[in-house]
Amino acid sequence: MTYYVNPKSLKDSIKRDYLKASEKFGAEIRVRILEIIEPYARAVIEVNAPKELLRALKHLGIGFSKEPMSAKFSFRVLVQLLEKISEGVPVGIGDRGNIVRVDISKPIAVDDIRAALYLSGQQLLWIDLVGNQIPSAEFIEIDGFPVPTSETKLYDLASILARAFNKRVEHIVGIIKARLQKLMADEEAILMPMPEIDELFRWSVLVEDEQLPQRAYLDLTGLPAVQQKLALEIATNMWPYDLVVALPYPWRSAIKLLKRGHVTIVTRDPLELDVPTVITENRVVKRVMIEGRNISGEIKCRPLWKIASSFL
To answer: DSSP secondary-structure letter at 247?
Structure first.
């Protein structure tokens, strides 16, 4: 059953929390934009929910109507109502004592190394394109990505390289195997040399006989941009755990390669990056898509890692 929310009900942030929480019990919230005057939008809020759930929301002070009721909403309110959190992690305390959460199933940009460490689990690959030191003593520096020993993962790697070099997957698999087995003469004549693969080994993007520790640190500074991008693409697609990438500036072309969950980008001016969530010194900025338009909502908060450090 579809009803329209009385906008006056949503002036209270707690009632917005109630409405948002109703999604866990089967409600569907929709926003219809009528007009945008940044940072506000005139909109209608629709809720489709079972009668029992609507009745419970009414008891909590949220009014409904059978006819559309439009009002001017801030982008922050609309983002709060529309954001979908698949894997929520608390990151701070809001200005009314509420817990602020972010979704780690989507890329997050930060300007503080402590934030990146907080958001990451035990199995972590830290890629440094800035030239910083290893973030903590728990990390072990690696020379490059080890060539997979399993046939399936080797084909996965070859598929990434095949797209980049416009070559056949089978040809790249054969080249890598021949190199690892140190095959000469007849095999090389059949496969033909491939300079692009040689460059990956020369710059230690790919390495032999390397093991990935639980917390690995890889320094890519000094590599040509082509090799850096390939390394990022390999990491994004081959590394199944948390990934942190430290960038010297908001490198937009790199962000296009990092469209996956459990990725944190550390850089100055993270708000310049097109990611769903940005965490800065004292605020969280969340972005959602409404009717083909990307809007942002800002939440002031005290980050948990700063609160913890104040007690040390």
So the answer is: -
